[in-house]
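User: I need a structural model of Sulfur carrier protein ThiS from Brevibacterium permense for a docking pre-check later this week. Nothing fancy, just the predicted structure tokens so I can convert them on my end. Input:
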Amino acid sequence: MTDHDHSPTIVLNGDRHELPGAASALDLIAEVTGRKLNPDGTPADGGRLGIALAVDGEVIRRGAWSDYTLADGHTVDIVTAVQGG
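Assistant: Understood. Predicted structure tokens for Sulfur carrier protein ThiS:
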């Protein structure tokens, strides 16, 4: 197997995660949350998402998720906002 034959692998919240080919940050968040997302990162169901995304320590704003392509070796952190405190 050569490097060109495998799916990109990222580190997602500390664990290895294989991506299905070229995936955007939006694709990953839709997969992780199990929700359909609009191109601007808002949930298609009109609800709230409450998610922040950082790639290699840099926060990626929601409106840029659909244009941000994840690559092999990226370290991705998805943080969910929690109510209360």
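Before docking, keep this in mind: Helices lie at 25-33.
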